[in-house]
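Dear colleagues,

For the upcoming journal club I promised to circulate an example of a predicted protein-ligand complex. I picked one with guanosine-5'-diphosphate-alpha-D-mannose because it came up in last month's discussion. The inputs are reproduced below in full, followed by the predicted structure.
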Amino acid sequence: MPELSVIVPTYNEADNLPLLHARLSDALAGEAWEMIVVDDDSPDGTAAQALALHEAGHPVRVIRRIGRRGLSTAVIEGMLSSPAPVFAVIDGDLQHDETLLPRMLATLRTTDADVVVATRYAGEGGVGAWSAQRARMSRLATAIATKVLRAPVSDPMSGFFMIRREAFDAAVRNLSGEGYKILLDLFASSPRALKVAELPYVFRTRQHGESKLDTAVLLQFGLLLLDKTVGRFIPARLVFFALVGGLGVIVHYASFALAFFAAGASFVAAQTLATVTAMTGNYILNNMLTYRDARRRGVSFFTGLLGFYLVCSIGLLGNVGIASYAFSLHYEWWLAAFAGIVVGTVWNFAASSIFVWRRRSF
Ligand code: GDD
Ligand code: MN
């Protein structure tokens, strides 16, 4: 029975994984530990590397997920699959200092801490060779997270930590799973304040492969914050979906004006063109942002677009129907219109998350 499961979320880390495993084996020599790789169908064959380690007789398991992406949900699923009383999370790209693991484990054994966080922002810690911009962004996000969610650590964005099973189990049903910040999610979702210990370390530079954190990650961070604040009342994704819809209105007017005034199209032609343009734009943005974890690519991008057109057409009927009905009841025109927009948006959101961006369950 392992005492410690080391969860490694991976996307395209085939070149790093064998090296990471070797270093973990050195660092954790003499401990009862196992490695659980959670791979999101990496095209570079990361899962096969993990299987090869297993076949070589090492205590390595791999969870393969298809049609889904997400660092946080990968970590959650890895923990859920583990029989161990203690879980560690470490990136698969060797940027985290694995030699900290024995001290993290010792801290859990000898103190009553629920979680030990490897921090870049205390003591001897540091962000290593980050660009000034990335360092600034990380500090800003850390400040926001600390203010909004009152996380009691110097580095709530750390992707490197160790936690007791009981602490995870108590929080798991409240976890948001949005984006990349699983530690922050755990703090914000725990029913009681978690006791924290910190160990400083210096973030290493990546040798192989590249970071998957791009600017959309900032938006996903926003999604997590929304979910942990207003999420009790409205789904955070609905907020995103509605914001994209708001942008769509602007796109609609702009394309209408181009077609009608600049190109001299008829009203019907201009309105049709503007509607299709706005729907297409909304689809692309929702695919990139709101539903990034179920993002459609290739042929599936186009079948999804057709589905989205269909969903929105029904939403439009509902919108106009409700608005006209409210207007016939002598509500103010703007209130009647607003009722139509709310009904249409909620329908589009609900239906498209079921029919267009349904996440696979395996
Ligand atoms: N399963 C899965 N699915 N794994 C993923 C995904 C995904 O969609 N995206 C990234 N990963 C894996 C990577 O393969 C890597 O092992 C780890 O998650 C971290 O991803 P990077 O792309 O290397 O992130 P980073 O180095 O820019 O940022 C990391 O370090 C920061 C500081 O600790 C992340 O861990 C951040 O969350 C963290 O704040
Ligand atoms: Mn990395």
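Two points we might discuss: The first strand starts at residue 4 and ends at 10. The pocket of manganese (II) ion (ligand 2) is lined by residues 91, 93, 95, 206, 211 (CB under 6 Å).

See you all on Thursday,
B. R.
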